[in-house]
Write a structure and sequence with these properties.
Layout: E1 3-8, H1 13-24, E2 31-38, E3 41-48, H2 51-60, E4 67-73, E5 88-89, E6 93-101, H3 104-113, H4 125-136, H5 141-150, E7 154-162, E8 165-174, E9 179-182, E10 187-190, H6 193-196, E11 202-205, E12 211-215, E13 218-222, E14 228-229, E15 234-235, H7 238-242, H8 251-257, H9 259-270, E16 271-272, E17 277-278, E18 293-297, H10 299-316, E19 320-324, H11 325-328, E20 340-345, H12 351-362, E21 366-371, H13 377-380, E22 384-387, H14 400-419, H15 425-436, H16 438-445, H17 449-459, E23 464-469, H18 473-488, E24 491-496, E25 513-517, H19 524-536, E26 540-545, H20 547-553, E27 559-562, H21 571-590
Parallel strand pairs: 18-19, 18-20, 20-21, 21-22, 23-24, 23-25, 25-26, 26-27
Antiparallel strand pairs: 1-4, 1-10, 2-3, 2-4, 5-6, 6-7, 7-8, 8-12, 9-10, 9-11, 11-15, 12-13, 13-14, 16-17
Helix pairs in contact: 1-2, 3-4, 4-5, 9-14, 9-16, 10-14, 10-18, 14-15, 16-21, 17-21, 18-21
The structure holds fructose -6-phosphate.
Fructose -6-phosphate (F6R) binds next to helix 10 and helix 18.
Length: 607
């Protein structure tokens, strides 16, 4: 998660950019840089380390020019050196970037074969060279940028300036957010409205697939289909700028849509993109020697643990026990000396999870935690902390923290499997590649939002809803049901598909919608049989699957939700998105408060 700023101003741009970068420093601070155009020439200052270093560099060697872009970096591809700091340049352009460009290796090979010389190890630099290549073919600045962006795969936000052009910044969004601010004869670009707050309160947000041609007095936006579109500028209140919902009605919606970006951040923290291996940092015990793993958590975090149990057992062949923290601490579980106890918690303050942690620490277990708030009590009392890097989660119902918890658990399962030699290098590469594709595929999955919003109107008046799935989708069925009941107050239950016939099927009649989560994997046929049992009893099925699965279901389902086809390992990430959206839009349709549902609190610090 890096921070991007762009300015076309009436006065010197670099001091304004520098101030805005300070507000984005929470996104990353291992290097920083600014580029401007003055007398047609691009110039830049870049430094390793925090923004203060950039301030010093600008004092020693000021950067003139009324147009510029700036960046504060959280390293993904390439070490946090000056050489890898943004903006990256080629002969004609300078680029700042937030996110991951998945196909950078192929593009780099192609560009090097065409005579381009690279100066960094980053994925970003390919953008500068690609735009230059299109300019050399005679394309206009905006056209060259759009053609280059169309070749990129991954999740990214970009700011681009051009040699010889002092009234143009191109902004592009595919996943991570990007805001445009309008001033008095000036325009700004930023990773969030908060960064632009001192300069303007008139802000619009780019949508996924948008490319913006930003001039000092006008903005032209072209959407993913190549159509010119209007994105409304709205006035932000001062308080809204501090904790900003972007262009969303609720924090929950913002946090659902933020997942591609934060998941990119999480995978970057745990995977080496060049070696395609998992990197955990220092772990103060031997993962290969751990006799047993115990994972404790509450609510949504517990469902992340449930997914992880499948991953650890399948990949690392280690016995994993999972438990709801409030039960675990009182059942006097037997744990072998030297076992690993993992605690999953967004807040890091959940009283039950903390009590379970203390119990394990007293009973000879190594204690690891997976938290969002690293300074929390659970974080502080752990031997090793694996941060999820989700950023602040304001909506009471957990969304982005869940998928980021999954990402860390997946990385940990792979690292454990590697340590225990239960997977080979080739398998690790495949799994890391699959995890790296999650930001892109979640962006694609979010495309079902409109369809789910329409469906939610029909569901809002129902009394009960059932969810089911098998294997990795069973915990997602449970999570979908929890999300729906906590924010829409509709009674919902999640089941393992095979369990329906042992009781819950008695609930099915024409009034009960049933959400079936069924990627086309080795359990697909079994899930289909369970679905037929439901349909035979009049149940209305909402069928979530990929293209192959949807082909098989024909017209049997009442509604069909398409999820991209993917490696089965990452299916829980993708199927989480539609169940989150379904809960959210049902709550909106019912008029309940999605961000602050009744009776709940974000952090449960009592037993
Ligand atoms: C559900 C939800 C809760 C939390 C649970 C644990 O949407 O948010 O079920 O997951 O209270 O909270 P943390 O993760 O802070 O320990």
């Amino acid at each position: 998660m890096c921070g991007i700023v762009g300015v076309i101003g009436k006065s010197e741009a670099s001091p304004v950019i520098f101030e805005a970068l300070k507000r984005l420093e929470y996104r990353g601070y291992d290097s920083a840089g600014i580029a401007t155009v003055e007398n047609g020439q691009i110039d830049r200052r870049r430094v390793e380390g925090k923004l203060n270093n950039l301030g010093d560099a600008l004092t020693t060697s000021p950067l003139p020019g009324k147009i510029g872009i700036g960046h504060t970096r959280w390293a993904t591809h390439g070490a946090p050196t000056e050489q890898n700091a943004h903006p990256h340049v080629s002969s004609h352009v300078a680029v700042v970037h937030n996110g991951i460009i998945e196909n950078f290796r192929d593009l780099r090979n192609e560009l090097e074969a065409g005579g381009h010389t690279f100066a960094s190890e980053t994925d970003t630099e390919v953008v500068a060279h690609l735009v230059t290549a299109y300019l050399q073919e005679g394309k206009s600045h905006f056209e060259a940028a759009r053609l280059a962006v169309a070749r990129l795969e991954g999740a990214f936000a970009l700011g681009i300036i051009f040699q010889g052009e002092e009234d143009l910044i191109v902004g592009a969004r595919h996943g991570p957010p990007l805001a445009i601010g309008e001033g008095d004869g000036e325009m700004y670009l930023g990773s969030d409205a908060f960064a632009l707050a001192p300069m303007t309160n008139r802000v619009c947000y780019l949508e996924d697939g948008d490319c913006a041609e930003i001039r000092h007095d006008a903005v032209t936006i072209i959407d993913a289909d190549g159509n010119q579109v209007e994105r409304p500028f709205t006035i932000m209140m001062a308080s809204a700028q501090l904790v900003d919902k972007g262009n969303h009605r609720h924090f929950m919606a913002k946090e659902i849509h933020e997942q591609p970006e934060v998941l990119g951040h999480t995978i970057s923290a745990y995977a080496d993109p060049l070696q395609e291996t998992i990197y955990l940092g220092r772990v103060p015990f031997d993962l290969a020697a751990v006799p047993k793993i115990t994972i404790s958590a509450c609510g949504t975090a517990f469902y992340a643990a449930m997914v992880a149990k499948y991953w650890f057992e399948q990949l690392a062949r280690v016995s994993v026990e999972i438990d709801i923290a409030s039960e675990f601490r009182y059942r006097e579980a037997a744990m072998p000396e030297g076992g690993l106890a993992i605690f999953v918690s967004q807040s890091g303050e959940t009283a039950d999870t903390l009590a379970a942690l203390r119990y394990c620490a007293q009973n000879g277990q190594h204690v690891a935690s997976i938290v969002n708030v690293v300074e929390s009590t659970i974080g502080r009392e752990s031997e090793v902390v694996f941060p999820i890097h989700a950023g602040p989660e304001i909506g009471v119902a957990s969304t982005k923290a869940f998928t980021c918890q999954l990402m860390v658990l997946a990385a940990l399962a792979i690292a454990t499997a590697r340590a225990r030699k239960t997977i080979d290098d080739e398998t690790e590469t495949r799994l890391v590649r699959a995890l790296t594709s999650v930001p892109r595929l979640t962006t694609e999955t979010l495309g079902v939002a409109g369809q789910i919003e329409a469906l939610a109107h029909d569901l809002a008046s129902t009394r009960d809803i059932l969810y089911f799935g098998r294997g990795l989708q069973y915990p997602i069925a449970l999570e979908g049901a929890l999300k729906l009941k906590e924010i829409s107050y509709i009674h919902a239950e999640g089941y393992a598909g095979g369990e329906l016939k042992h009781g819950p099927i008695a609930l099915i009649d024409e009034q009960v919608p049933v959400i079936v989560i069924a990627p086309y994997d080795r359990l697909f046929d079994k899930t289909m049989s369970n679905m037929q049992e439901v349909i035979a009893r009049g149940g209305r099925v909402v069928f979530m699957s990929d293209d192959k699965g949807l082909d098989h279901v024909g017209n049997d389902a009442w509604a069909k939700i398409r999820v991209p086809e993917a490696d089965p390992f990452i299916s829980p990430f993708l199927y989480t998105i539609p169940v989150q959206l379904l809960a959210y839009y049902t709550a909106v349709a019912k008029g309940t408060d999605a961000d602050q549902p009744r009776n709940l609190a974000k952090s449960v610090t009592v037993e």
